[in-house]
Amino acid sequence: MKLYGYFRSSTSYRLRIALNLKGLAFENIPVNLVTAENKDEGFTQRNPFGSLPMLEADGRDRAQSMALLEWLDEAYPVPPLLPQDLEARYTMRELAYAIATEIHAINNLPVLKYLKDPLGHTQDEIDTWYRHWLARTLVPVEARLAQLDAGDFLHGDAPGLFEVVLVPQLYNARRFAYDLSASPHLTRIEAACLALPAFERAHPDNQQDSPERKPQ
Amino acid sequence: MKLYGYFRSSTSYRLRIALNLKGLAFENIPVNLVTAENKDEGFTQRNPFGSLPMLEADGRDRAQSMALLEWLDEAYPVPPLLPQDLEARYTMRELAYAIATEIHAINNLPVLKYLKDPLGHTQDEIDTWYRHWLARTLVPVEARLAQLDAGDFLHGDAPGLFEVVLVPQLYNARRFAYDLSASPHLTRIEAACLALPAFERAHPDNQQDSPERKPQ
């Protein structure tokens, strides 16, 4: 498998975590989002959305991150990202999709760029926008976790689809100085995940295109 | 089942279509998004996200529309919203989730309200924003449909998850005067869907809270 991604792209980060959790080996191929390498014709011919990540696997290029995660869980079911029980599956998807749609989509790089140009907003206004959408959904997610009396993970003793989406979003939340002090369930789950090798290896700082990468 | 929704909310419209396709009877309970009835304490106690739609079914309130559609397809599998074949399932989700995340989430009412206040944008600027995100994803979706040589539906001879998400988005595209003349696959699929009773009954104009509703 080949994963075309960018170290700091949170959807690329989701895929790196999921592939690691599944124990699937992959070659990581950096594509620079900031210089828009993802808009090069060679790339958009393979992925008309021009989005990252793109996974080349089983003879096909796939590029929509939530559809990719669902596919990965069906094609490589062990260990599962979704529980067996229908009620638990709904809960797992509810919280994962709330973050993917109500936070990430609105705070994604193309949207932030549009706010800057053509809309002319300052970095301060963009940072306020970013934190507004974080709070609007992370506060009810925290409330749901409290209601469910969640422990180190949303379901059982291992991370699932929710954690795959949550951890990259909290990485971004910290970059934008979002205050997580009133979110004990979120930060406990994050800490439990970050202690796992699958998450550690997937971290942006540990990718070959990261300026933060430590010598191996 | 009880569906709490708003006639013009495209996520409520998704659920009405899906419930009709599954042949599931439900009571439609209007919640006025414009006067923010969805932020009333009685409602947010049941749904901490304060979002529509909310489906009361099997003793539980569920409120994240994509998670709800996935749950519905698992709890009531016939007729299916997703094909059996893994490759076809990926394609169905790719296009459905592209619209749900890359268009709908960015053009959702709370985002448009934020652009107006506090950001102070004019209705013209907001309409341009709306059409920008439509084009950015509908153009590659149309290209994918051409590549797949899609007929009246993305997969087989019946609508699935893609059509459930597409039709409400095109209803909104028309409200915002988006030009669909270069999208023959999208408009053919839309026409095939709108000819079906399940879509007809789900249409915003046919809900009891719509001012357009014709006398029965």
From TrEMBL, chains A, B:
InterPro entries: Glutathione-S-Trfase_C-like, Glutathione-S-Trfase_C_sf, Glutathione_S-Trfase, Glutathione_S-Trfase_N, GST_Zeta, GST_Zeta_C, GST_Zeta_N, Thioredoxin-like_sf. Keywords: Isomerase. GO terms for molecular function: glutathione transferase activity; maleylacetoacetate isomerase activity. This is Maleylacetoacetate isomerase. GO terms for biological process: glutathione metabolic process; L-phenylalanine catabolic process. Residues 1-80 form the GST N-terminal domain. It holds the Pfam family GST_N. GO terms for cellular component: cytoplasm. Residues 85-212 form the GST C-terminal domain. The keyword Chloroplast does not apply. Belongs to the GST superfamily. Zeta family. NCBIfam families: maiA (TIGR01262).
